[in-house]
Automatic annotation (TrEMBL):
Key words, A-Z: Membrane, Transmembrane, Transmembrane helix
Protein name: MFS transporter
Keyword Transmembrane helix in annotation: yes
Protein source organism: Brumimicrobium aurantiacum
Listed transmembrane segments: 12-33, 45-63, 97-121
């Protein structure tokens, strides 16, 4: 199997996850311009503010760990499968955090929108694959 096909599959999966997340935020979130301003933060909100931060670092940590634990002797196709799996795992963690913010702390939708923006910017590319596995 051509490794470019696997990267294309990862890009399609990313597009679907991103699209669904954006649609959920648009249609299920009661979004207004006011909600995208940085809210007043109370002590009750600290837990929900920690969620996107933890999700970001946890997703990146698990991604790096999976990529770094890959045997260098594996074929490029097998490395691509690891890349695709690690990418999906990282995106799923961020998607979960964004949904938790949207449904459990809608007053903090600003932070959820930052997660969505981060997910949009994490599009897997051939260059990223080469950088991570070379």
């Amino acid at each position: 199997m051509d490794y470019k096909k696997t990267i294309k599959e990862a890009q399609i999966i990313h597009l679907v996850i991103t699209g669904v997340l954006v649609l959920i935020y648009v249609f299920l979130g009661d979004l207004t311009v006011e909600m995208f301003k940085i809210p007043e933060i109370t002590s009750d909100d600290y837990f929900f503010i920690a969620i996107p931060i933890v999700a970001f670092f946890l997703g990146n940590y698990l991604y790096r760990r999976q990529v770094q634990s890959t045997d260098e002797k594996l074929s490029i196709e097998k490395k691509c499968e690891v890349f695709k799996t690690a990418t999906i795992m990282r995106l799923a963690i961020l998607e979960g955090a964004a949904l938790v913010i949207l449904f459990l702390a809608p007053n903090l939708v600003f932070f959820g929108a930052l997660i969505v923006l981060n997910v949009v910017m994490m599009r897997p590319t051939e260059g990223q694959f080469q950088k991570d596995f070379d």
